[in-house]
Amino acid sequence: MATPLAAQDLTPVRFSLDWKFEGPSAPFFVAIDNGYFADEGLDVTIDSGAGSRESIPRVATGAYEMGFGDVNALVKFLADQPDAAVEAVYMMYDKPPFAVIGRRTQGVTEDPRSLEGKTLGAPPPDAAFAQWAAFKDAAGIDSSAIKIESVGFPVREPMLAQGQVDAIFGFSFSSVLNLLAQGVPADDIVTIMMADNGLDLYGNAVLVNTEWSAENPEAVSGFVNALVKGVQFTVANPEEAVKSVLSRNNIASEETETARLKMAIDDNIVTEATETDGLGAVNPERLTASIKQLQTSFDMPSPPDAARVFDPQYLPPLEARLPN
Asked: CA-to-CA distance for 14 and 169, rounded, in angstroms?
């Protein structure tokens, strides 16, 4: 009877990812498989998502207690619904993977202004596309001759591979590897990172329903503690960590998902800021400045304060959050 009773004592947490079960989601599954969540008294179940903006209303409505989504979309969501029961509690992507990915053979170069006169494929729910207005302003792009073509996520990379569009919006670690899988040569792929061209934003964060967190603060702290351990294990052992993803996605390629995970670690998770300030934290001044930049992308007469967007109270001490 001991094991069932112990299981009954665990607090259930429904968690919504932003996307499919792919390499970058490894830290969450590692925290399950290595027992980190269970050690904190949590029974976490994880569902896939439909885009890094879609998880926000899932959490705000209470359909999920916690989730993973774009903090910039959260800013817009809170500007429109100030009383929404959602906030961010852990910043996973200190540097967002927002990018415009094009092909050199179609005239796209590392200079963002090479996009002028081109046709860009954009899935409407895509978080990178959501930053287009701010990005083109920050990068000095004249968009008057740029055509934006609405495309679905499944056909985004195939359309670029087939030359039907000149570039696409997406997450760098997703679109680049998907293009390689489509047979596009690596030296023909150009990745224009928004964060390297004037757009200093944060990326995806862990979200929590604030009505639930008010009643279960220890569960939120426990989730974050366990996730930190999952991230640290993943950073130190990406080849081992990706197996937690592959065990739940039997059609995924180990080579591709390992490469995708390593890209996310190197480009988005472990940065100069996280080496100093620890995993999961935000700089309030930087977040405030990013909210001002977002006013170019979004219609926000009354944007939320940084303190309304991100709540640091559930983070463990700095010494426990340093990357390995």
From this structure: 30
Q: Are residues 77 and 146 in the same domain?
A: no
Q: Are residues 296 and 212 in the same domain?
A: yes
CA 215 to chain centre: 27
Task: Give the span between the Cα atoms of 47 and 254, in whole angstroms.
Answer: 20
**Structure confidence by residue, pLDDT tens digits, 222-253:** 999 999 999 999 999 999 999 999 999 999 99
Nearest alpha carbon to residue 59 among 88, 29, 93: 88
Residue with tokens 């665990």: 10
Residues 6+ apart with CB under 8 A from 82: 302, 304, 308
Distance CA 56, CA 215 (A): 20
Q: Let me know whether 214 and 73 are in one domain.
A: yes
Residues 310 and 238 in one domain: yes
Beta bridge partners of 14: 45
Q: Same structural domain for residues 187 and 148?
A: yes
Query: Residue 162: which domain range?
Result: 98-196
Q: Which residues are CB-neighbours of 271 under 8 A, at least 6 positions away?
A: 94, 95
Q: Which two tokens stand for residue 319?
A: 């010494």
What is the pTM (predicted TM-score) of this model? 0.91
